[in-house]
Inverse folding.
């Protein structure tokens, strides 16, 4: 199944989840979505999709907080129940995990939300037939 590209060519349909997690263009799945850490490109280098209308807002940060918070709180509770370490051990364990995990998860979560915007026709997607 193919979708008509903005430049008139055919771009193979791609999974919104695969494109989002890989941080690729939601239409063609090949062009990079970001430059820098979280700055979205104005358009796809491969298919020319206009990405300037994307607005992920605070959604990625909210999902990262909820997802990562659930994991860290569960792990901290397990460590506390099993070993009862002093507070400084908790700080040494969970601070790097929270900071590193947040940075690593923001890009894919933002990519998935942008891909969902495209899939639901909120980001310059071609009209339904």
């Amino acid at each position: 199944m193919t979708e008509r590209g903005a430049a008139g060519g055919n771009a193979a349909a791609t999974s919104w989840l695969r494109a989002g997690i890989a941080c690729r263009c939601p239409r063609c799945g090949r062009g990079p979505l970001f430059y820098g850490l979280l700055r979205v490109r104005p358009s796809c280098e491969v298919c020319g999709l206009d990405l300037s209308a994307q607005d992920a807002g605070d959604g990625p940060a909210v999902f990262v907080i909820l997802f990562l918070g659930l994991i860290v709180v569960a792990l901290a509770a397990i460590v506390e129940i099993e070993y009862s370490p002093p507070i400084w051990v908790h700080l040494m364990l969970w601070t790097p995990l929270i900071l590193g995990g947040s940075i690593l998860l923001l890009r894919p979560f933002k990519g998935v939300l942008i891909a969902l915007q495209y899939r639901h026709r909120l980001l310059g997607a071609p009209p339904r037939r």
Observations:
- The chain has three helices and four strands.
- Residues 1-11 have pLDDT under 50 and may be disordered.
- Helices lie at 16-21, 59-83, 87-119.
